[in-house]
Amino acid sequence: MSDDSFDVVVIGAGPGGYVCAIRAAQLGMRVACVESRKTLGGTCLNVGCIPSKALLHSSEAFAHAAHGLETLGVKTGKVTLDLKRMLAHKDGIVEQTTKGVDYLFKKNKIERVLGKGRLAGLDTVHVDLEGGGTRILKAKRIVLATGSVPAGLPNVPIDEERIVTSTGALALAEVPETLIVIGGGYIGLEMGSVWARLGSKVTVVEFLDRIVPGMDGEVAKAFQRVLQKQGFEFRLGTKVTGAKAGKDGVSLTVEAAAGGKAETLKAAVVLVAVGRKPYTDGLGLAEAGVKLDKQGRIEVNEHYQTAVPSILAIGDCIKGPMLAHKASDEGVAVAELIAGQAGHVNYDVIPGVVYTWPEVASVGKTEEELKAAGIAYKVGKFPFSAHARARASGNTEGFVKVLADAATDRVLGAHMIGPDVGTMIVEAATVMEFGGSAEDIARICHPHPTLTEVVREAALAVGGGAIHI
Fold it and tell me: Fewest 10 Å CB contacts: which of 68, 185, 190, 316?
């Protein structure tokens, strides 16, 4: 091959793209990855998952030290915030993580091309290089892994200072006295939690009549109650019609979602967190014959091939949940399919987690989905308040719920709110991946005393056999 000829060229170095590139290289292919950002890792590592989790951890430690340690017999005196150092810690974690991906590219002999790539034919990628000039790459297969960008609202102009996306919310120079979050989904509630812990008065404005749409309804209601205890205010069934930023803050115009009298809310900062949209601009899709669906996502078949078989797509720019781990799994699957192997992703078993405290986690079908589909099911539920280890740590909010088929006992879904459930959800996902039952979970010996026993008790409860309640 020439220096510009590859087996696979990946456009985008986020969790889907960089994982795809690494797996393809492991399988013996010559790989190039085109990325316009100077650091690898995409939105997730640079301005998404990783920095937000760093701030969530730091802010939770601050809140725990300020308000939670005394009940455990630990006196610290007055706890003060060093926001500059907290943000520096976040930036340091991002730097370490992105450099780690850079190391993995070098280890696997992946050629990194810094610039903006676009399709220029069935087997050609045209790259406008960061330093000027162009480079033409030839590839047997091209993988589009361009991710997504924050969605906006009409009449709500983003300036990343007073009216911010999640990117701006990760880098506020001071704690806003008041923060309005537009959107009651994962991102808005996580970032709202960060700033609420550090001292902001947070109000969530949500168009729907509930938060975290798509999650189990019972969990969503419990989650809202917990956040209200933490100081959140909620304006549900409310739409935003306009926003004006000034020197002293933002004036936000709202009204009932069904229509009604306009009202003005004021806040120091407004966070627009109404979801994300596929990033497909400037990729030359139409010219290459690649089609988009009605939602603006790249259309692919079951093998991730677009209308042009040599061009494939994964991650946020195709259908499915916009989650980093979903994109990574698709990246592995695509690389293996290109290599002639049997790569696949089980879309029925993709966990979702909200990294607030307590955490919220879900996998599989919700009760609402099972009812709508007419599937008979059984429910087992167990609260953290009934578990000694949870009481010992002071983390008694929430519960675990297991849903199982009424006839076969096969686990159809699991929904949790409580301490560290983002980790605990994997037990349910593993059992579901192997077609296991609630009884299978119940018969596994769980170490005592650990929070995972709550999962076992919920599984026992499916058959009416919970021991500790």
Answer: 68
d(CA 81, CA 75) in angstroms, rounded, equals: 17
Cα–Cα distance for residue pair 446/442, rounded to 1 Å:
9
Specify the DSSP element, H or E, that contains 8: strand 5-11
- Decide the pairing of beta strands 163-164 and 269-272: parallel
Separation CA 316–CA 323 (nearest Å): 7
Main-chain dihedrals φ then ψ at residue 465, nearest 5 degrees: -115, 20
- The DSSP result for 308-362, as a single string, is STTEEE-GGGSSS---HHHHHHHHHHHHHHHTTS-----TTS--EEE-SSSEEEE
pTM to 2 decimals?
0.96
Q: Which residues are catalytic?
A: 448
Domain residue spans of the chain: 5-150+278-338, 163-274, 352-462
- In CATH, the architecture of 5-150+278-338 is 3-Layer(bba) Sandwich (3.50)
Q: How far apart are CA 364 and CA 347, in angstroms?
A: 9
Residue 204: which H helix or E strand, with range?
strand 201-205
Taking the domain 163-274, which CATH number applies? 3.50.50.60
